[in-house]
């Protein structure tokens, strides 16, 4: 895992589980830590992931989907900031507090 630390705004850091990502999955889990101490889990998907899911299905339904072009730091941060601006509590899954 690696962390992208933020300097300004309500986001303190983004923890990326990129060792779990694979070319076959085209999805990536991240945990966003806010300045107020809350943590939210998000799953990012690529278009290739959606194509694969729809390969044999007529539909694909998933809650809290964030779509990214790729898993670059820039795309990840853009998705997190977009989620923040669109009611983060609706898009992320609240994680239990961890004492640090």
Account of the protein in words:
The chain has 100 residues and is α+β, with helices and mostly antiparallel strands. Helices cover 24% and strands 31% of the residues. Strands 1, 2, 3, 4, 5 and 6 form a 6-stranded mixed beta sheet that branches. The protein is globular and about 45 Å long.
**Uncertain runs with pLDDT below 50, 5 residues or more?**
none
Total count of helical runs of at least 4 residues? 3
User: Which class of secondary structure composition applies to the elements?
Assistant: alpha+beta
- Averaging pLDDT over every residue, what do you get? 82
From the alpha carbons, calculate the radius of gyration and give it in angstroms.
14 Å
Distance between the termini: 17 Å
* Helical percentage: 10-25%
Query: What's the β-strand tally?
Result: 6
Work out the strand percent: 25-35%
Order of helices and strands: EEEEHEHHE
Q: How is the biggest beta sheet arranged? A: 6 strands, mixed
Shape category: globular
Short recap of the structure:
The protein has 100 residues and is α+β, with helices and mostly antiparallel strands.
Topology (elements, then pairings):
Elements (H helix, E strand, L loop, with lengths): L1 E4 L5 E6 L10 E8 L4 E7 L1 H7 L11 E3 L5 H13 L2 H4 L1 E3 L5
Parallel strand pairs: 4-5
Antiparallel strand pairs: 1-2, 2-3, 3-4, 4-6
